Amino acid sequence: MSVANRKAKEKEALKALILKGAKRLFIEKGIEQTTIRNIADEIDYSVGTVYVYFKDKNAILHDLHSIGFQELGGYFEELFSIEDPMERLRKMGFTYIKFALENQEMYDLMFNLKAPMEFLESSEEGGWNEGLVTFNSVKTTVQQCIEKGHFKGHNMEPLSFMVWSLVHGMCCLEIRQRTKGLKFTNPDTILLDGYNEYLKIIDRL
Amino acid sequence: MSVANRKAKEKEALKALILKGAKRLFIEKGIEQTTIRNIADEIDYSVGTVYVYFKDKNAILHDLHSIGFQELGGYFEELFSIEDPMERLRKMGFTYIKFALENQEMYDLMFNLKAPMEFLESSEEGGWNEGLVTFNSVKTTVQQCIEKGHFKGHNMEPLSFMVWSLVHGMCCLEIRQRTKGLKFTNPDTILLDGYNEYLKIIDRL
DNA sequence: TACAAAAAATGAACAATGTTCAAAAATAAA
DNA sequence: TTTATTTTTGAACATTGTTCATTTTTTGTA
Asked: Which parts of the sequence belong to the HTH tetR-type domain (chains A, B) (predicted)?
């Protein structure tokens, strides 16, 4: 059994190597500018080998999208030590924006590109688990806010979706160059300025 | 002069024909699935001809993105007869969502795809005029709300950006399949339910 | 009308991409 | 050592955006 065992580990290692190389190139020169040949070159394997370990490009992009969610989880970790749900909700949005701006290509992959979702559709997996888990962080926190007497007259799930949309929308516009295309009074701080307006609002609810 | 004149008009007509064919295919089978050869076939011209009238694919996508903004302008038209700025702001968001859902490929092109912005960067045009005009509709309305005593303690531009991000974020998540990937309690109405939470909030400001 | 010049349209050809698969190389089992 | 299995390879294919020398059409002139 030890040989088969080692082989299995080697397979996993190579898979991880491919993902690591792909991620490096994605961040370095953009996802669209990265080809399978580039990835193969980067890790000194042939094109064919990549296709032994991944069904197609979508599979690579999906696995990398999952890694992105792990990393987002790392950013979120410190949030769960915050007792006050309102304070946690405030910081959560800020952390989300921080992650998006510091990991633009990964964020794009996680929340914008079609590839990961196309992979899900063509696979037997139940649904978008990564998104579900992240959205649950928001929902749970909003629920606790409600239980503490905030957000009177609001519904938990739609309100959570609204909050998520708000931060996602800002990140999206920024990453897809729709803020650079415009000319804001304070172009460098428009995301945080916008988020601050939101903070002012929920502080009163 | 009449010949040169007619020629110029014919050139414009063919350009428009190409754009019309492209748009039809985009809506029918998606932007990513549409090739220049497809477009040429659709209008019974050769590939080369398309390149006589457009520098590259980005140029087509940019022009089509501008057409999208004209269409969005059509949706917005009735808004300007609404006197009360708060009421106008409410309806504006709703109209925006309606446009996005009824014209998903076009919306994607206008607010998500990189092509139109890449075209702008490689051209001598000043900036993203289409986006500027649309965002001005929001800003003007928010400004009028402020002048009427609403949104006390808020700043016009960041607040407008926040509002835009909120609706854009919802549309974006929907169009890029991040709501289908999740499982909402009411999947079919999550956008409107989310928007309603927003309405409840601003009604109090 | 006939014919040369200009303009417009063409499609074969190129480089780059994702993908496949028979063959080669490396490893394991006997 | 020899055979069987696994892993790796890279040439080949279809499809893409793009170019450009050539052909076709239109215009201007005698």
From this structure: 12-72
